[in-house]
Amino acid sequence: MKVLVTGGCGYIGSHTCVELLEAGYEVVVVDNLCNSKKDVIQQIEEITNKKVIFYQGDVCDYALLNKIFAHHEIAAVLHFAGLKAVGESVSQPLRYYRNNIDSTLTLLEVMIKYNCKNIVFSSSATVYGTPKSLPIKEDFPLSTTNPYGSTKLYIEGILKDLYISDNDWNIAILRYFNPIGAHKSGLIGENPNGIPNNLMPYIIKVATGELDYLNIYGNDYDTPDGTGVRDYIHIVDLAKGHIKALDKVLSGSGIDYYNLGTGKGYSVLELVQTFEKVNNVKVPYQVTSRRPGDIAACYADPSYAYDKLGWKAELGIEEMCRDGYNYVIKNK
Ligand code: NAD
Ligand code: UFG
Fold first, then answer.
1. How many angstroms is it from 85 CA to the middle of ligand 1?
2. Which domains does the chain have, with CATH numbers?
3. pTM higher than 0.85 for the full model?
């Protein structure tokens, strides 16, 4: 059975392609490589010993999507393609709205044309804004504080309206918590260019000496050690969640929403200390002021995904730290 993976060269998409191929799906990827490299396709093929059909192009390109759907009988789409840098979305809101929303609308229109009504969408825990309590459940109130988050919330709304208009659609909306780590092989992972926004890639660049020290954004939060608490999830666990969600969608599940997290929160300091211990490296840091827009703590109640999909995260924080570093060291 063939599935289309938009943004399949990216961090989460590439790991999901590996799991899809290993689960026996045929994989077609479309990616414009705006935040990834084509080599990833070869790496996925090397890990799995299976072929990936790759189209380099934009999901906003209606003609290209038509071509893909005309050539391949696509049973479902996993829609990862999107821009994801929160800060950049504040300075370039129109680029974010254009890219993330236009690509989704184009994709959905072409899916309707080819009568493919099964989709798994990459949403984010960012749609919970400042959560009213912890852990976060799927029925919590939704809000956003930046254009990136708004694109996710709008797309969730578009998908809901689509489902209301036509109950033949099967839609899984996955709200990811904080994916980190890399595939065990060290062939795929995350290593952004320049100065990273996110904590784990930043820690890794300090550990490799590319950056001098980590800035910890605040140690005066209402958390056990004062630093921000997040639900870090191993990227391979997250990727596996997509296979379960896809199976559910293909069984005719209507629309549903799932938190993909571990249910455990770790502070910035705990992550730094674990990283130092398992990799036997030093990560110098200094505490600076809070980053605007950050919340104190965020972690999932992942029990709904377990009840409905039979999925739960298996890998711990040590494996996340070890595998994330291993990827960067191997590819230096
Ligand atoms: P990523 O940037 O590594 O991957 C996204 C991929 O999509 C890239 O390969 C990029 O080149 C491609 N892309 C972007 N716009 C495109 C377009 N218009 N046409 C074709 N390709 C396009 O990001 P990721 O971390 O793998 O995230 C995947 C999805 O998950 C995104 O939608 C992101 O918003 C969402 N998400 C990510 C996180 C996270 O922490 N990484 C958290 C929550 C949600
Ligand atoms: N942090 C630092 N120093 C850094 C970077 C981050 O102290 O250099 C802290 C933050 O203040 C926060 C924690 O580390 O307490 C995690 O920050 P990240 O930037 O790694 O992750 P966020 O939780 O802020 O956001 C990420 C994605 C969002 C997504 C969200 C939930 O960037 O797009 O996870 O999935 F919505």
1. 9
2. 2-182+232-261+303-314 (3.40.50.720)
3. yes
